[in-house]
Write a structure and sequence with these properties.
CATH class of the largest domain in chain B: Mainly Alpha
Radius of gyration of chain A: 23 Å
Distance between the termini of chain B: 17 Å
Low-confidence stretches of chain A: 389-397
Low-confidence stretches of chain B: 1-13
Order of helices and strands of chain B: HHEEHHEHHHHEHEHHHHHHH
Number of helices of chain B: 16
Mean pLDDT of chain B: 85
Helix content of chain A: 55-70%
CATH topology of the largest domain in chain B: ABC transporter involved in vitamin B12 uptake, BtuC
Distance between the termini of chain A: 8 Å
Number of domains of chain B: 2
Order of helices and strands of chain A: HHHHHHHHHHHHHHHHH
CATH architecture of one domain in chain A: Orthogonal Bundle
Structural class of chain A: mainly alpha
Oligomer: heterodimer
Shape of chain B: globular
Shape of chain A: globular
Number of strands of chain B: 5
Structural class of chain B: mainly alpha
CATH architecture of the largest domain in chain B: Orthogonal Bundle
Number of helices of chain A: 17
Radius of gyration of chain B: 23 Å
Helix content of chain B: 55-70%
Strand content of chain A: under 5%
Largest sheet of chain B: 3 strands, mixed
Mean pLDDT of chain A: 86
Strand content of chain B: under 5%
Largest interface: A-B, 65 and 67 residues
Chain lengths: 402, 420
Amino acid sequence: MIIEAVTQGSSTVMTILSIFLALVVGGILILFTDPIVTKAWSSFFSDPGNALAQSWDSVSFAYSQMFEGAILNPSTVSAAFHGGSIAAIFYPLSATCAQATPLILTGLSVAIAFRAGLFNIGAAGQWVGGAIVATWLGFGVSLPIVIHVIVCVIGGFVGGAAIGWFVGLLKAKTGAHEVIVTIMLNYVMYDLLSYLLSHPAMLQQPHQTNQIAPFIANDANLPHVGGPAPQAGVGFLIAVAAAAACAWLLSRSTTGFQFRTVGASPSAARSAGINVEKSWIWVMLLAGGLAGLSAATVVQGTNTQLTFNSYGTYGPDGITVALLGRAKPWGTVLAGLLFGALHVGGTYVAGATLNQVPDDIVQVLEGLIVLFVAAPALIRAVFRLRATSGTGMEAAAKGWNG
Amino acid sequence: MTTLTAAVRAPLTADRKWLATGTFAFLGVIDVLIFGLLAHKGDAGFVLSASGTIHIPVIKVPAAAICYVLGALTIAIAALRGTFDLSQTQKRWAIAGVLVFFLVALLCWADAGAIPLNIIGMGQGALASSIPLILGALAGCLSERSGVINIAIEGQLLFGSFTAAIVASAFGGLWVGLVAGSLAGGLVGLLLAVFAITFLMDQIILGVVLNVLALGMTDYLYDRLMAQNPNYNTGVSFGSIRIPGLADIPVIGPIFFDSTIFLYITYVAVIAIQVALFSTRWGLRVRAVGEHPTAADTVGIPVLWIRYRNVILGGLLAGIGGAFLTVGSVGSFNPDISSGFGYIALAALIFGRWTPLGSLAAALLFGFSLELALVLPTVNPVLPPAIMNMAPYVATIIAVAGLVGKVRAPAADGQPYVKA
């Protein structure tokens, strides 16, 4: 069962070892593609010390830059002691939270579907659905202050939920596999967005040739703390609140219990009198809504303007975040924060090294981390740990039929 | 487990018969009401000869009338489907007929009163779009028939296309590039096999992760190597090979027998895998391993070896499909060049019920729709390109929900085998 595979993984220690191993492998990739390092290695036999020193410099510089960009920059701390801004110390952390916000929400979208045994590849399409509604409400409607921002966020939820509900409905009524339907709907939604953003009568900003929507009204923006963009704000609070709501739903409510039972075994759930089809529809509706919320936090928070490229990689990243978070709401929050930090750090290191280390390294690191976390047998072999029985990750896969 | 699932069958949520009838009727009504009524702008024209071959005059047909006739036929098929209990073969013919009628009606509607459509060019384009989908779906078929879920098709295509481009550019050899691309796909297949079969990792997670890794790696290497050194991405590509004799057949020849080596590899692969899987001892063993590995092991079939072999073979094949994306068509590599083709191939595999011929049909339907979306806005500017681009995906959703419904994967697909 995929649920068990995702939820009952290895311990914290294994996760930390996985992150460490991913950094090592990522470091090797940085080395192999650094011309200075490869040159130093070509004269390894005449000057081995130089080769090693250059290698160490290259990798440690890249990773320390990532840390400074995403967590804490020591120079801001010393500046603060000499009369500089104290707030500047927290800018990297705040940027990390801002980047993590949409990732946590798409991560929750994938995670909650996982718990009911569904694989939601469609967070990207649901994201677009939410973004379209939130943007339209943001610039096309004028409402009193405070109410406007709330209406837009709810609109984002509804826009995403509609797409998710459709997936659940098709699965429940016709048996159409959610993996196919969500993949196809992603493309449909991208094309719909492209269409809407090319017509001024729809969502395009007037007198524009690019695919770009008007700025949403000021009173529809989610407030955030000061400092250079991006900065964390109310969006982050929404993400944390959503995680709390999911945690409560899954562990404390009847509906959540039904979701988990359906996820564990649809046939057992059915013989226990649970309406499996209804659970599918509801869980997909919620999953879509969470992805839509993710869109709302982006268009109303960090971007304030929808473009064709706004959807970025929030959908696919949601899958890796949910997997790393083991499909548990609070795990997803932590995983989202880690990936947010990696994204911020990646952008920072690409800027600091004049793109000598492209920020794509982050995607490699993310993939490696999830790969190692999901394969505890490999981590045990690498670090020579003794096998503990029943980590749950092994022999626990589920096919298309279940 | 088996007895339990057999005892508690899912209630039939919707009667397949009425769902199919309804879908057919729906498509027929679209044929008549939308395509037919909107096609009153004149005749639709079709060009059927390529330059330099026997000349066939442009065929002109009254667009609206054709749409009405096809719509009526479709509704008649819907009535047949709803009234009689058709055999499995008859049902498939019904689906094929309805889809073909729908596509012809669509073409007539789109081309009514516009420039004649070049059918030869469309056919060639559709086949070319289908090649990576077919090879990717075959890769999935080989792997999943032996019981290993392959979501990493996208990663195999992407890594194959990158490696083919960089090797062909650096060494100046197209064939070297093709082989290197195939090997790169095989390498992703090997990773999939090692983690899924030896480290017993969840195969759906694994596939997604391998795709993320392949995307990250190729983006990174593109920025680091290709973007800074154009010699690594020169854009060399294969020319087309005319098959003597066959290529001279009117209409069919230029579409099917005047193409790059990749199309011919695809023909061979489809036939070979279909025959091998369903008519040889080799295939019987593969299917046994995919359906009931314990039983297969009991009679002495090496389960793990067959799984390793099939997953890697599939990777090699998907790598060729990836190589097509660079050295087989545009030549140069761009980040994320596979742009979701691997996921579409996966959908084609499921849609085609895990058979090579079924996947072929689904992939062709897809490739044809992709080509339509590309060509139709150029002949008829009224059609918005973005909406036309949706067509293949909407068509797949309608087909999966209305015609195919719940599919059954190989029984042990996705379950690691551990010897008791």
